[in-house]
Amino acid sequence: MADIRAFFTEYLPAKLAKNPTIASEINNIYQFNLGDGGSWIVDLVGGNANVSEGTHAAPGCVVTAASADFAKLLDSPSAAMTLFMTGKLKVSNMSLGMALQKLLG
User: Fold this and answer.
1) pTM exceeds 0.85
2) CATH fold label, 4-104
């Protein structure tokens, strides 16, 4: 099972540093609320990428899931549709939700 903390503190910042165009393509803020996996902000506004623990007052997209379900998503990004259709993954903005594949894949 994937380590959620490692994803947000190691994997995702490294991926965004190697691929800075992802931030400028998405240009928005994600709030991840993952139960006991914590709350995380992925700020991609202005072409900069910043990943931090906490909550944002006005994110463009809020992603909500239990930590176990989000870990399944990290292990198998193709599981996203199943998790979404069964209500285990909630996304407040569908167009930004679709862009998540750039972050997770």
Assistant:
1) yes
2) Nonspecific Lipid-transfer Protein; Chain A (3.30.1050)
